[in-house]
């Protein structure tokens, strides 16, 4: 997306932009508008509340046994006290929700904190 595309979108959105002889949006205005467009697009693609089927799909991809009801209740699996298939599924769904929150930028991550998280990763690789 280039400057002209952003100006066209701004006009379509009803933002007042002057024509020659006055001024176009300055770079900061264009940046702010691009951020708003990106946020709106991200919200359209990734709603804040994840669809339950998506979370289940993610959990099953993480652990295929979770897709077969009662799989971990079978005696062949060593279990911790009180651990059951349902408990394992609930735990996996909770983790998948947390991952979704991060990807949809409703978790701890934000563009402003990118450098902090990148630094943590860099320290872990040293």
Describe the 3D structure.
It is a single chain. By secondary structure, the chain is mostly helical. It folds into two domains: 1-45; 48-126, no CATH class. The chain is built from five helices and no strands. Helix 3 packs across helix 4 (85-103). The radius of gyration is 23 Å and the shape is elongated. Residues 18-23 have low confidence and may be disordered.
Brief characterization of the structure:
This protein is an all-alpha fold. The chain has helices at residues 3-12, 27-45, 52-62, 85-103, 114-125. It contains 5 helices and no strands.
What secondary-structure arrangement, pairings included, does this model have?
Blueprint: H1 3-12, H2 27-45, H3 52-62, H4 85-103, H5 114-125
Describe the structure using short key phrases.
single chain, 126 residues, mainly alpha, 5 helices, elongated
């Amino acid at each position: 997306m280039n400057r002209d595309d952003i100006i066209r979108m701004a006009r379509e959105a009803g933002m007042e932009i002057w024509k020659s002889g006055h001024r176009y949006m300055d770079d900061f205005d264009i940046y702010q508008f691009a951020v708003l467009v990106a946020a709106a697009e991200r919200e359209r693609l990734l709603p804040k509340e994840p669809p339950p089927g998506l979370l289940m799909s993610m959990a099953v991809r993480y652990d295929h046994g979770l897709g077969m009801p009662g799989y971990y209740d079978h005696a062949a699996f060593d279990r911790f006290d009180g651990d059951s298939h349902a408990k394992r599924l609930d735990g996996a769904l909770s983790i998948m929700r947390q991952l979704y929150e991060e990807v949809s930028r409703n978790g701890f991550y934000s563009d402003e904190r990118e450098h902090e998280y990148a630094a943590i990763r860099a320290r872990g690789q040293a």
